[in-house]
Write a structure and sequence with these properties.
The complex is a heterodimer. Chain A is mainly beta. Chain A is built from 2 helices and 8 strands. The chains are: A mainly beta, B alpha/beta.
């Protein structure tokens, strides 16, 4: 991703900013010009709560360029409580302890270092929600 | 609209061709196809390719290949739709001949994946996904398929070796194909002990990185006789050609476990061809990963939701089963040179229909279906060939 693309998507990567469709009221992430549910023009910005649950996950052993230093890591599909699903890494948990349906919450973490100059890219990852002890 | 037939095919054996460049391998397949068709000059060359720009720093690929193949003053264009580039290029060729715009078209699927390191190739393949919202998080293509497979196994209670039959069938069939990358059967033991790439996908669930090129010459069916001379085994007609798309990102699918684009494109193809799934003699599906075989069988009408994997366990997919798949090794054993794969499927379908598939021949093959998938199910192209 280029610096321009990273700058454009900063509200999405730092705060899960999406939209709500003014016609069908579905939550949308990331923002789109056309609502994927009803095809009307998509609407006002809406920041997701960051809470969701694990829909699926994988421990990645062979990884793309740019992610070698982090290997292995766990990538998940996280179903946000507002409805949209996102692809993100899980953090603060080992893959052996991940379960489908597990509640998770968004945190901001380093995603990677970009290119030769090494700009650090931050973005969302998800960690388990720990219930408070009674 | 004119009916379109294939009057010549050519292919390079799939493998790691470090001694050949992309222009050489493409020319090999094109020259073989033109020789079969008994013609030297074409009106157009359409090239299906995904990665020449990102891995080889070579774009303008179709013109490079046309130049190298001695085709001047013709139309040459590259068609890209990730791993469905091959079949997408065939569709463009089909449209060009069907419409009457061109009379003789050669379509070549080609990919060179072994000039770069594994990590660069993996990163190149990830460009088929949404760069800002999928690849940016470090998910590879194997990873996306692993996310589908993990959820599928959870929802439908599939055991760890539930998909083994797809891999075993592909390798058993590939052993009979001299153009396959792997020509050796595997055992259940080999599958179960294979190392993981992205859990739960192990190396035996996954197709290999490789180089390859496959080509076909298309003409109007009414003119096919002119090309079918001498020793030529005969023309094969394209009975149906259909493509459909879905969301590019897996996370945006209404149901990540259903290949909606496979359903739509196969239904369109069945209608065009006037056939039903029961009429199909064999099915070259896109088994880039074993999970994709199960999902393709479900979306094209061969199994109910969540039951596609049973077909592997029941041996319904073997050469003498109810619906033979990957008859010459499929992506798993023949290999998956991504932008070339769709054309290998077509070339192999033609081989089967001509009765030229050697030891891998399906008995009484009369109608074959080939389905090529781009991305994690985002572009799906279905072709039905016959007689």
């Amino acid at each position: 991703m280029s610096i321009a693309s990273l700058w454009r998507t900063r509200q999405q990567r730092y705060s899960l900013q999406g939209e709500t469709c003014p016609d069908c009221h579905q939550a949308i992430f990331p923002p789109r010009d056309v609502c994927p549910y009803c095809s009307e023009a998509a609407g006002p910005l809406h920041t997701m709560s960051g809470r969701g649950e694990v829909y699926s996950y994988t421990k990645m052993l062979n990884v793309p360029d740019g992610f070698l230093a982090q290997r292995p890591y766990t990538v998940a599909l996280v179903k946000l409580e507002e409805g949209p699903m996102v692809t993100a890494q899980l953090t603060d948990i080992s893959e052996e302890d991940v379960e489908i349906g597990m509640p998770v919450e968004m945190v901001t973490r380093k995603l990677r270092e970009e290119g030769d100059s090494g700009e650090i890219v931050y973005g969302y990852k998800f960690r388990p929600v720990f219930a408070a002890a009674d | 609209m004119r009916n379109v037939s294939i009057v010549g095919i050519g292919q390079l054996s799939v493998g790691e061709h470090w001694d050949l460049s992309i222009r050489h391998i493409a020319h090999h397949a094109i020259a073989e196809a033109l020789k079969e068709a008994g013609t030297e000059q074409v009106d157009a060359l359409f090239v299906g390719n995904m990665l020449s720009g990102s891995l080889l720093r070579q774009e303008h690929l179709a013109t490079l290949i046309a130049d190298f193949s001695g085709q001047r003053n013709v139309e040459a264009a590259k068609i890209e739709s990730a791993c469905a580039s091959g079949a997408s290029a065939l569709r463009i060729g089909h449209m060009a001949v069907a419409s009457g715009m061109h009379d003789v078209v050669v379509v070549c699927g080609v990919e060179k994946m072994t000039d770069t390191t594994g990590e660069s190739t993996t990163a190149g393949l990830a460009t088929a996904a949404d760069a800002e919202y999928e690849a940016a998080h470090g998910v590879s293509f194997v990873g996306l398929n692993a996310l589908i497979m993990q959820r599928y196994m959870y929802e439908f209670d599939v055991p760890m070796d539930g998909f083994a039959g797809f891999s075993i069938n592909a390798h058993r069939n590939g052993a009979k194909n001299a153009n396959a990358m792997f020509q050796k059967p595997i055992s259940l033991d080999t599958y179960v002990n294979a190392p993981m790439i992205a859990t739960p996908i192990n190396i035996m669930d996954s197709s290999p990185v490789c180089d390859g090129a496959a080509a076909a010459v298309l003409v109007a069916s009414e003119q096919a006789e002119e090309f079918v001379t001498g020793h030529h085994p005969g023309a094969v007609q394209i009975l149906a050609s259909a493509s459909a798309n879905d969301t590019i990102a897996l996370h945006d699918r209404r149901d990540p476990l259903f290949l909606e684009a496979a359903y739509v494109s196969s239904q369109k193809a069945y209608m065009q061809g006037g056939v039903t799934p029961a009429d199909i003699s064999f099915f070259e599906l896109h088994d880039a990963f074993t999970i994709m075989s199960a999902l393709s069988l479900e979306a094209t009408g061969y199994a109910r939701r969540g039951e596609g994997w049973h077909l592997a366990a029941d041996d319904a997919i073997s050469p003498d089963g109810r619906i033979p798949i990957s008859t010459l090794g499929g992506l798993k054993s023949r290999g998956h040179p991504v932008g070339a794969t769709g054309m290998y499927q077509i070339v192999e379908t033609v081989q089967q229909l001509r009765g030229e598939a050697g030891q891998g021949q399906i008995a009484d093959a009369s109608i074959g279906m080939a389905q090529n998938i781009g991305g994690s199910g985002a572009t799906i192209v279905t072709h039905i060939l016959g007689g």
